[in-house]
């Protein structure tokens, strides 16, 4: 029931909008559309069915919705009795206010779903500290999905596919991209570290995981660069890539880097006449540091794997 509360509130808001249309039909002295009444009844029944899963605490809301459906039926058979329809319309407005308020304050908040989408194990350190913080939140369901990627052929087509799902540290539970549907789950937050979409001429993540597409299926797309820039001098070509443009939030390593991102994004907007189409740069670029630095600070020799060949070369 990860997103049921949110969906119910949206459904009740849609019902309220439908009720206004019904009321307008009455005030215009024309019979309310039967199709609209039927759709409202169907939607209200769906909300009631979901509410029943919450147990006895939702019984009052279910009864209100049942009464609401009965009122809609009475309106449908009383279309020529304007006074009766107006009274029923007033009643259903009150019912929707009651249901909306009760769902908002009496139904437990939805659990948040957070998805991390690394595609190379070598770049996992750009997401790991954020993931570690997320899994500590008992109100969140957190998933790490291994994203496949392709080599680019000389003609630009996709070549051999790679999937590094089995190569992550044992303490990171990784799901295959085939096991988790972004479209069905519609996570609250998605974290990515690949900014290129189709504009990487060496490799490409699976097109299903392009930022432009992910944006459609989440409330918040967050891009964290897989790299850090020397002295925060971020090359311009890293700033105007899809991962930055489509992200709701971009986490950068320092205030200096943030100012560079904002400046270059404004220049991009001016050149392409797309001001604020991708969000206001001052609001989306956040200087929160790089998880790569977190990884360095929390690493010691006891938890670093060094290949035996390296040890032999070092005489250890």
Descriptive overview:
There is one protein chain. The chain has 316 residues and is of the alpha/beta class. Helices cover 45% and strands 14% of the residues. The strands form two sheets. It has a seven-stranded parallel β-sheet with strand order 5-2-1-6-8-9-10. Strand 8 (220-223), helix 8 and strand 9 (249-252) form a beta-alpha-beta unit. The model has no long low-confidence stretch (mean pLDDT 88).
Q: Beta-strand level of the residues, as a percent range? A: 5-15%
Task: Spell the H/E element sequence.
Answer: HHHHEHEEEEHEEHEHEHHEHH
Q: Based on CA inertia axes, which overall geometry fits?
A: elongated
What structural class should be given to the helix and strand makeup? Answer: alpha/beta
What average pLDDT do the residues reach?
A: 88
Strands of the widest sheet, in order across it, are: 5-2-1-6-8-9-10
Radius of gyration: 26 Å
Number of helices, where a helix is a run of at least 4 consecutive DSSP H or I residues: 12
Contiguous uncertain segments of 5+ residues? none
Q: Helicity level, as a percent range? A: 40-55%
Terminal CA distance reads 54 Å
**Record field, number of beta strands:** 10
Biggest beta sheet summary: 7 strands, parallel
């Amino acid at each position: 029931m990860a997103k049921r509360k949110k969906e119910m509130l949206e459904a009740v808001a849609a019902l309220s909008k439908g009720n206004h249309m019904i009321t307008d039909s009455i005030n215009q002295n024309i019979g309310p559309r039967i199709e609209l009444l039927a759709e409202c009844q169907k939607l209200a029944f769906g909300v009631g069915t979901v509410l029943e899963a919450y147990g006895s605490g939702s019984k009052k809301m279910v009864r209100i919705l049942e009464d609401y459906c009965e009122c809609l039926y009475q309106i449908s058979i009383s279309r020529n009795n304007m006074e009766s329809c107006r009274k029923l319309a007033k009643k259903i407005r009150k019912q929707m206010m009651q249901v909306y308020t009760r769902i908002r304050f009496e139904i437990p908040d939805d659990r948040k779903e957070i998805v991390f989408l690394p595609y190379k194990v070598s770049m996992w350190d750009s997401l790991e500290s954020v993931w570690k913080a997320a899994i500590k939140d008992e109100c969140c369901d957190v998933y790490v999905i291994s994203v496949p990627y392709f080599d680019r052929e000389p003609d630009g087509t996709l070549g051999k596919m790679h999937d590094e799902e089995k190569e992550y540290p044992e303490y990171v539970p990784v799901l295959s991209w085939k096991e988790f549907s972004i479209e069905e789950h519609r996570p609250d937050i998605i974290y990515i570290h690949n900014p290129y979409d189709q504009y990487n001429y060496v490799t490409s993540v699976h097109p299903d995981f392009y930022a432009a597409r992910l944006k459609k299926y989440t409330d918040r797309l967050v891009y964290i660069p897989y790299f850090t820039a020397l002295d925060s001098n971020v090359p311009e070509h890293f700033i105007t890539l899809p991962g930055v443009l489509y992200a709701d939030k971009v986490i950068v390593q320092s205030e200096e880097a943030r100012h560079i991102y904002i400046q270059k994004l404004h220049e991009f907007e001016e050149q392409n006449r797309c001001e604020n189409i991708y969000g206001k740069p001052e609001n989306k670029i956040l200087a929160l540091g790089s998880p790569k630095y977190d990884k360095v600070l929390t690493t010691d020799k006891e938890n670093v794997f060094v290949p035996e060949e390296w040890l032999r070369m070092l005489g250890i």
